[in-house]
Specification:
It is a single chain. The longest helix has about 40 residues. The chain starts with 6 loop residues before the first helix and ends with a helix. With about 375 residues, the chain is mainly alpha-helical. It is built from 14 helices and four strands.
């Protein structure tokens, strides 16, 4: 076995190796930088630009699109005039844009300043230019740091027509969503977003029947009560229990719900009537803070317990039914397993045994005494 190197010699060799690798990297980086400088000089000379301007465009990524030229009135008017002239014309017979601009130029020059601003700021041209800026910003950010994302822009006004504008930083991202999200349909989701936006951002405006509106109001009540309960208990995993409210909420957390509208039963939301005014009154009370959870003392909890016991004894109140006991209560059970984790052969054998037992039971039932 060869003798080990002395520590000092080992350190010198290691430093020498590190210095050699650093020198090799510096040479390669200098060559890359020189190639970049030559490329920038070539582009600057070809397009009559300053080299510093080309460097800023190269290193700043998508941020260069933040201060680009604003949409022009002429382009906005030309776009809509072209759409108007060729509205019902087949594609192969449409009038070219340059001819439309030439034939209807007098109409443009007769526009007032207010009408020109209307074309620029209200119509689709501003949307198109802004969305293109966002796309270039996202592409630049992806090139700089590496990101993936998407956005969807829809109109919220009926003053103009515009299809939902989708953008994905990668076509694979859209394909993945079609697999990962059940029933993902990009055009359909864009259309649904547009309906919501045109309706003024109000979900209730999209609900067509009273049943749908009642379901929405109940979901609002459920969400608001859950949020209030989490806020007062500080337990983000706490769940509301209407059936065993006294035992699960009052006695456990020493809180009660005050301000529940009179005339409306305090019970499971699924058991409430679908009449809209009472449900809306509960939502309004929870939103305004009239209905809220408040803390009570141990003495108050004990007083409520005695009061409820007296009502049950007198028949004014029906006691809560205890939960039905499991058939295998007291029997040790194995650990929970995820669905499908058991061996398929074991499942098949168990199902066969169960089928045989059912067949035997049916055969016994069919037997008659002679």
């Amino acid at each position: 076995m060869a003798d080990t190197l002395p520590p000092k010699l080992h350190v010198k060799l290691k430093l020498k190796d590190c210095q050699a690798r650093k020198n090799a990297f510096d040479v390669d980086f200098d060559n890359l930088f020189q190639q970049l400088r030559r490329g920038i000089s070539k582009i600057a000379e070809k397009h009559n630009k300053k080299e510093l301007h080309i460097e800023n465009l190269f290193f700043n990524g998508g941020t260069r699109y933040l201060n680009t030229i604003k949409p022009s009135v002429w382009n906005a008017w030309s776009h809509y005039k072209y759409q108007e002239v060729n509205a019902d014309v087949p594609v192969e017979e449409r009038i070219p844009l340059c001819n439309v601009q030439r034939d209807y130029a007098d109409e443009y020059y007769s526009l007032t300043e207010e009408e020109k601003q209307h074309y620029v700021h209200v119509k689709i041209q501003d949307v198109v230019n802004t969305s293109k800026k966002i796309e270039k910003l996202m592409i630049g950010l992806d090139n700089c740091v590496g990101i993936q994302g998407m956005f969807c822009i829809v109109r919220s006004s009926t003053d103009f027509a515009m299809d939902p504008r989708w953008f994905f930083t990668s076509t694979k991202l859209e394909k993945y969503l079609e697999i990962a999200v059940r029933k993902w349909d990009t055009p359909k989701i864009g259309a649904q977003n547009e309906v919501y936006a045109v309706a003024g951002g109000s979900i209730t405006g999209l609900l067509r029947t009273s049943k749908m509106k009642a379901r929405w109001l109940k979901s609002q009540i459920r969400d608001k009560i859950s949020a209030l309960l989490v806020e007062i208990t500080g337990n983000k995993n706490v769940k509301m229990n209407y059936v065993s409210f006294e035992e699960a909420i009052v006695e456990r957390f020493h809180i009660i719900l005050e301000g529940w509208p009179s005339g409306i039963a305090f019970t499971n939301l699924s058991e409430l009537s679908n009449t809209l005014p009472p449900l809306q009154s509960v939502v309004d009370a929870l939103t305004s803070g009239t209905c809220k959870f408040v803390c009570i003392s141990e003495a108050q909890v004990q007083a409520r317990r005695e009061w409820i016991a007296a009502d049950i004894a007198s028949g004014k109140k029906v006691p809560c039914k205890p939960r039905k006991q499991r058939k295998d209560a007291g029997v040790a059970r194995g650990p929970c397993t995820a669905a499908g984790s058991r061996d398929l052969g074991e499942e098949e054998s168990e199902s066969e045994d169960e089928e045989e037992e059912r067949c035997e039971d049916r055969s016994h039932k069919r037997q008659r005494k002679a």
